[in-house]
Amino acid sequence: MSNKNEMPVVDIDDIPVNPSNNPWLSEVIASRRNLLKGGLGLALGGFLGGHLSGCAATNKNASPSVGLKNVSPKIGFTSVPLQHAQDFDRVLVADGYTARAFFSWGDEVVTGAVPWKADASNSWQEQQLQAGQNHDGMAYFPFTDAPNDHGLLVINHEYTNPTLHPNGPTETRDAQGVIRRPEHEVLKEQAAHGVSVIEIKRDQKNLWQRVKNSSFNRRLTANTPMGITGPAAGSEHLKTAQDPTGTRVLGTLNNCSMGKTPWGTYLICEENWNNYFVNRNTADWQQRVSHKRYGISNGLNSSKYYWETVDPRFDATPTDKQYFKGFVNEPNRFGWVVEFDPFNPDSLPQKRTALGRYARECATVVIGDEGEVAIYSGDDTRGEYIYKFVAQQRFDKNNPKATPDLLDEGTLYVAVFHADGRGEWLPLIWGERGLTARNGFMSQADVVINARAAADILGATPMDRPEWVAVDPHTRELYVTLTNNIERGIKVDQPVDAANVRKENHHGQILRWAEKKSNPAATEFTWEIFLLAGNSAQSSAPENQQGNIRGDLFSCPDGLWFDADGRLWIETDFDDAEDVYQPMGCNQLLCADPLSRNVKRFLVGPRGCEITGLTGTPDGKSLWLNIQHPGISYPASDGKTRPRSTTVLVTKDDGGVIGT
Ligand code: FEO
Ligand code: CA
Ligand code: CA
């Protein structure tokens, strides 16, 4: 007789993920449909209501305010207009402010570095000591004796562009059709990934400068040794030919957004690491959840970089029954949060596996009244989930470094957004709610390594590509950017629902929620849609491309950050060459009032770039953001020098607080 209790005990990596023959995945789809049934009325009501009334708010009854101090911040600048020019090659900031390039790809970081060469002929060894490409998440760490004048800037380098090489990447095809790459190019790409730490300081003229040859300056790359801690450390599924212990790994990949802890560490996030690996064995790939469920390539090559043709650890094709003799487990060693102390240049970064493995966008830290620690993250893939980790131990602000391994024990949760404005955090705990041997989970290590599959079983809500999470310093409300999802309402497992209301969602939305009693460790919350991005409801755009923004137009919210006064800063990432985004001009930084929901455009970047990474000094008078992958000559802006991802410093000309 067919009975769930009689299902054989199997290893998680042996579970098929094809819905047609996978009982538990079919159940997940069924539960998503049940959610939809409850949510459809409200979803349409909220969506259409916003348009018909011209109001920004949806789902008013579910207002998540938690009763803490909640006042409108001062937003005093005049909006910057949209920029439509095809040759727009600079940063335009609001009147009364100055934006200047501060730290670009190729700039010298570590002692011994040589200057950037404009023809991109720097060697891979030189690149190891210079700024990487594609600056992304970033945080400022002040020195305590002069917090507004002296600090460390820590910057992620997410991936590499063709501009890294003099004439773009070299790719040749062998007799089997496999694309091959020269080793020196792969090594340069690996060196341009990771993180930069730079010491920065105001000079005698009060201007910020990078401190050359500082002992704090550091580069982490795709080859920097790192530790692995938490429940998956030492797991059979983390062992490789290079590391039979499953506790040491080389490097970090695709470092998108980040987190910053009150105990002084930086949290690197590993986002689209799946693009770097290939498993050529189709039969194995089909049944290996830790590969297939994460989109690892099953072709001749990895999907993007072809590093595996030079560096065997990126070839995850099983080679031996004793799989840890090869690199089939190497992909399981990415997708984590990596914690390190920027003030200790010799510290070994640690991959904290208790927080789960997925395409992690960010790791936003929130501390509760009693020292509860929660870390919020989005899994930025279409139809993936929002997670939070609650540490078992508490943070003691009077002794901030008392628990250095605070992130190794705790509970990982995944979010369910109910249609009535309530939400739940469901715990991903081995042995509970179907996360058992019966479904292939033999340990908590299996749960965290296969967090997506575990969240599928619990019936988490598939979201429209969750990117950054930001916390309101006044109310402790959480905001998340759902950047877009063109598969929404198209794919059967991603029907529209109350939180993801638009079919074929090109423009994205921002949600916000309040934890019960504003406790970050709570397992219940209330939520609402803060705004739907996109064209105005009065425009002739198709209905699924209309939003309900009060104020300046934008699309595809991505970076999201609150300053200390409670201004909500929104950064965009859309393809400004695509037809659907033509009304939005170039990518931008905007500022929103969380109370009135009014939005004003503060800055516009050059054609082809994404605006990301946002951090500032405690006094709010110095702000850094990143111009990632400008498509046009920037920062030289001379029409000929190759573009460089660049950290930009923004100051107010009267020395005041940014945004006021
Ligand atoms: Fe690297 Fe989801 O942005
Ligand atoms: Ca992003
Ligand atoms: Ca994005």
Number of domains: 1
Number of helical segments with 4 or more residues: 7
> Could you say what the CATH architecture is?
6 Propeller
Sequence stretches where pLDDT stays below 50 over 5 or more residues: 1-64
> Fraction of residues in helices?
10-25%
Report the portion of residues in β strands. 25-35%
> In total, how many beta strands?
34
Give the strand order, joined by hyphens, for the main sheet: 16-17-19-20-21-26-25-24-23
CATH domain class name: Mainly Beta
CATH superfamily: TolB, C-terminal domain
What Rg do the Cα atoms give? 24 Å
Q: On the 0-100 scale, what is the average pLDDT? A: 91
Please name the CATH topology.
Neuraminidase
Task: Give the CA-based shape.
Answer: globular
Largest sheet: 9 strands, antiparallel
Q: What does this protein structure show overall?
A:
It is a single chain. The protein has 660 residues and is mainly beta. It has a single domain (12-652), classed as Neuraminidase. It contains seven helices and 34 strands. The strands form seven sheets. The protein has a nine-stranded antiparallel sheet with strand order 16-17-19-20-21-26-25-24-23, with no helix packed on it. Strands 1, 27, 28, 29, 30 and 31 form a six-stranded mixed sheet that branches. It has a six-stranded mixed sheet with strand order 11-10-15-14-13-12, with no helix packed on it. The relative contact order is 0.16. The model is unreliable at 1-64 (pLDDT under 50). It binds MU-OXO-diiron and calcium ion (CA) (2 copies).
Summarize the structure.
The protein is mainly beta. The protein contains seven helices and 34 strands. It is globular.
